[in-house]
Structure to design on (864 residues):
């Protein structure tokens, strides 16, 4: 460890007089052309599949019709955005989306870290493998099947409902009919499905931690708990921060398929999020591509701002960031 | 068994003898050998069906196509979208109007902006000239004889555009308009000494009695959005736009709807309707309760309902005979009278697929265009009608005193196909497409006594008089506003009705007032005026 650290150290020395970017790039290209060649397919992929389609955002300013194409559809400017902002349900949708997204960040996100830490402490390799496998199996169940299971579990006669009734005397109702229960059901089931899968990245980060650090800590008299607090977690922080920023970037993408499969009109007041509303509004009855694109565009702008801010903050506070 | 074989032989022999004779008879084939391309979804009924040892992957493999080709001499190349991708693939089609297939089948009223937009976008060709110039004599005869249908198959601005899927030609006693109805346990009715319910009061009495005698049973179960549509009629209330004496109304905010909601709330509180009905969002949800003998009554699809409920009940010995599952009329407000409204389809069923000719082909004109008109019009001729609805004489049906009777090939298929699948090899009238449905199909199509009775009882409604015509589309300049109002009204209505029925909110006079006021704020009367304008324009055409 210490040797490799020394090797890395002297790199950023000779950068006092910078040549212009073009010249540097040319030189680098000549020197590392094989690497650039390897990178080329990825670049093409991003240009074709990620950046190219962005041009399609233009339809959010039109009344898009497939038969007329992007060139021929009528231009309506900001109309679809205004429609969305003026929608009587706009406030509720934003609040619900944020509520579910924040709850996911607060509860689901740390749960995977905790699980990874716990699995890491297991002595037996075999047990830890069994635990890992079992915990990420639900991730592979399709959302539709999963929601079917959830609906059965929390129905009037479902296992979870009965359990809560016996333990806490909760009234026997279909829990999916109570607006107050929707977010908890969503979050708990989200943790159940994704905890194992999400912990994989942390587990791999954990194996990369230098064992010497633990040995040094032990010499200094640290017990297991101290080791976790002062060695494991600080070493995990860069991974956590990056995962967190990525998660923030997808905040508005709250699992709307799952919400759609779980909500009822009774729980619209807590469960109806931007994406589900747009689905009902833009696809279920009258197909309105432009409106849906406009809302998608709005989502992306908000998420990009959030990612940008989180990244800035994290660089300032923890020193690690996405870029 | 021997008898069956003998019967099958008896059926086959005349078929073999008749076939060449039939070929000679229809000598008039003006477009013999013309090839057309035809875009249409492959119906689910054909999934897994084999003809001549090969899986049906293209409609050209069906006996129906053989018969069509035989009769018209026109060769069709069918193009099917991948299963479940029809919407996407249709959009891709329309994106390149220059490469549209000759004939395209689609639910044209679902085209963004309605059928008139499809003409405007140069996707399909208007048929006005063709119909006026007598190129489509068979279709024209039907339209001339039925003014209502004639109106409804035109666009909002009065253009013909489609060879329509028609569920018959009359609203009187027409079982083709009904695809779902009530099913209930006749054995329990008998045990309690009760009659089959017809009115709301009778329903309440029966459900209460069931609840008392069998406390563990769910008295009534069905899927969420049907609950509204099946019980509202009992209060002379309607759940959507309808027309009365030329005036467009929306039943959602009428006082009769308040009465409906109050009753449903009472039923829910007393456990007369399934306490989980709001989570039954798909067809078949909740069917399990009925099939397991845990529910007394349900509302379900005619075919899918009965065939999923009755066999398991018989197998489990819960009912002793299939006739223990009985049915009843649509809920009516006055016993013995037809229900004012009911859940039913329109004569021109815009949700089914109808055929249109692509603008590209019409522009090219010539023999192919004429052949397409001829082919689609032939579907409405006597010969085409019989092939579309019954298939091939001597093979899938026999004429007995002029009445087409299905053979065992359809009704008791030797390969174990159900009636829907077996018939779809020979015909397509029972599904969709450019055809006029025939009540005589439904009279034989169903085998359970509950279904057969349903085909008579479910037609006891006068809804045909009040139905808002499918063809009357809101004008383009109002379409956006209308869509916004509709979306808001729908969300609010679903939410409030669910709260009131389940008792999460109390339905009082004040709450109802606030609710109707809110609907007003959303612009419901503006939406009604759009609908009225569309209706007036539609009637004037």
């Amino acid at each position: 460890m210490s040797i490799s650290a020394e090797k890395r150290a002297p790199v950023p020395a000779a950068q006092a007089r910078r040549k212009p970017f073009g010249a540097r790039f040319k030189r680098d290209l000549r020197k590392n052309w094989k690497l650039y060649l390897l990178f080329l397919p990825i670049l093409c992929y991003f240009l074709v599949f990620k950046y190219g389609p962005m041009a399609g955002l233009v339809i959010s300013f039109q009344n898009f019709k497939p038969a007329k194409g992007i060139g021929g559809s009528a231009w309506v400017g900001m109309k679809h955005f205004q429609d969305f902002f003026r929608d009587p349900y706009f406030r509720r949708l934003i609040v619900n989306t944020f509520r579910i997204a924040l709850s996911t960040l607060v509860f689901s996100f740390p749960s995977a870290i905790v699980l990874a830490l716990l699995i890491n402490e297991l002595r037996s390799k075999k047990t830890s493998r069994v635990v890992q496998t079992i915990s990420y199996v639900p991730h592979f169940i399709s959302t539709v099947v999963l929601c079917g299971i959830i609906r059965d579990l929390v129905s009037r006669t479902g296992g979870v409902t009965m359990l809560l009734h016996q333990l806490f005397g909760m009234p026997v109702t279909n829990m999916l009919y109570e607006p107050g229960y929707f977010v908890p059901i969503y979050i708990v089931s989200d943790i159940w499905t994704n905890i194992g899968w999400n912990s994989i990245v942390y587990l791999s980060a954990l194996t990369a931690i230098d064992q010497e650090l633990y040995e040094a800590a032990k010499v200094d008299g640290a017990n297991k708990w101290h080791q976790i607090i002062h060695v494991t977690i600080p070493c995990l922080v860069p991974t956590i921060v990056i995962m967190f920023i990525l998660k923030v970037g997808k905040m508005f993408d709250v699992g709307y398929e799952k919400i759609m499969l779980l909500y009822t009109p009774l729980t619209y007041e807590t469960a109806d999020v931007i994406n589900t509303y747009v689905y009902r509004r833009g696809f279920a009855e009258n197909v309105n591509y432009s409106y849906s694109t406009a809302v998608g565009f709005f989502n992306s702008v908000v998420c990009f701002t959030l990612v940008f801010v989180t990244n800035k903050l994290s660089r300032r506070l923890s020193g690690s960031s996405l870029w | 068994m021997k008898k069956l074989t003998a019967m099958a032989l008896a059926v086959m022999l005349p078929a073999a003898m008749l076939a060449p004779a039939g070929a000679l008879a229809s000598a008039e084939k003006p477009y013999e050998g013309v090839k057309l391309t035809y875009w249409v979804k492959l119906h689910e009924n054909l999934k897994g069906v084999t003809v001549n040892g090969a899986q049906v992957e293209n409609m050209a493999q069906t006996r129906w196509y053989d018969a069509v080709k035989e009769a018209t001499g026109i060769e069709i190349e069918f193009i099917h979208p991948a299963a479940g991708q029809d919407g996407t693939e249709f959009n891709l089609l329309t994106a390149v109007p220059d490469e549209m297939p000759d004939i395209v089948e689609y639910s044209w009223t679902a085209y963004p902006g309605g059928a008139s937009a499809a003409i405007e976008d140069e996707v399909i060709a208007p048929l006005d000239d063709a119909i006026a110039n007598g190129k489509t004599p068979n279709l024209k005869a039907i339209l001339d004889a039925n003014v209502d249908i004639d109106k409804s198959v035109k666009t909002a601005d009065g253009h013909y555009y489609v060879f329509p899927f028609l569920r018959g030609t009359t609203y009187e006693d027409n079982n083709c308009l009904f695809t779902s109805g009530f099913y209930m346990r006749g054995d329990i009715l008998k045990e309690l000494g009760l009659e089959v319910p017809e009115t709301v009061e009778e329903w309440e009495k029966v459900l209460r009695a069931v609840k008392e005698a069998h406390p563990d049973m769910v008295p009534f179960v069905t899927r969420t959005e049907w609950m509204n549509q099946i019980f509202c009629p009992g209060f002379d209330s309607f759940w959507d736009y309808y027309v009365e004496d030329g005036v467009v109304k929306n039943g959602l905010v009428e006082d009769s709807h308040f009465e409906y909601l109050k009753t449903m709330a009472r039923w829910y509180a007393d456990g007369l309707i399934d306490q989980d009905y709001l989570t039954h969002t798909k067809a078949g949800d909740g069917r399990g309760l009925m099939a397991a003998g845990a529910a007394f009554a349900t509302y379900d699809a005619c075919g899918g309902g009965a065939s999923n409920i009755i066999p398991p009940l018989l197998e489990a010995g819960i009912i002793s005979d299939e006739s223990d599952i009985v049915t009843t009329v649509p809920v009516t407000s006055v016993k013995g009278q037809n229900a004012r409204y009911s859940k039913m389809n329109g004569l021109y069923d815009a949700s089914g697929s109808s055929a249109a000719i692509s603008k590209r082909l019409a522009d090219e004109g010539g023999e192919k265009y004429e052949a397409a008109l001829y082919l689609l019009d032939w579907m409405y001729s006597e010969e085409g009608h019989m092939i579309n609805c019954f298939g091939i004489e001597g093979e899938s049906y026999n004429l007995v005193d002029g009445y087409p009777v299905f053979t065992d090939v359809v009704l008791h298929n030797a390969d174990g196909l159900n009636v829907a699948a077996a018939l779809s090899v020979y015909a397509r009238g029972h599904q969709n497409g450019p055809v006029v449905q025939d009540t005589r199909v439904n009279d034989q199509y169903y085998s359970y006594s509950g279904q057969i009775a349903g085909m008579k009882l479910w037609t006891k409604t006068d809804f045909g008089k009040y139905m808002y015509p499918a063809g009357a589309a809101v004008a383009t300049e109002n379409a956006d506003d209308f869509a916004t109002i509709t979306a808001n009204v729908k969300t609010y209505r679903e939410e409030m009705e669910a709260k009131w029925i389940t008792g999460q909110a109390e339905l009082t006079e004040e709450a109802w007032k606030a609710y109707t006021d809110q609907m007003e704020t959303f612009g419901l009367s503006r939406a009604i005026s759009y609908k009225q304008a569309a209706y007036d324009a539609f009637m004037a055409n």
Summary: Chain A touches chain B through 28 residues (CB under 8 Å). The mean pLDDT of chain A is 86. Strands of chain A lie at 62-63, 74-75.
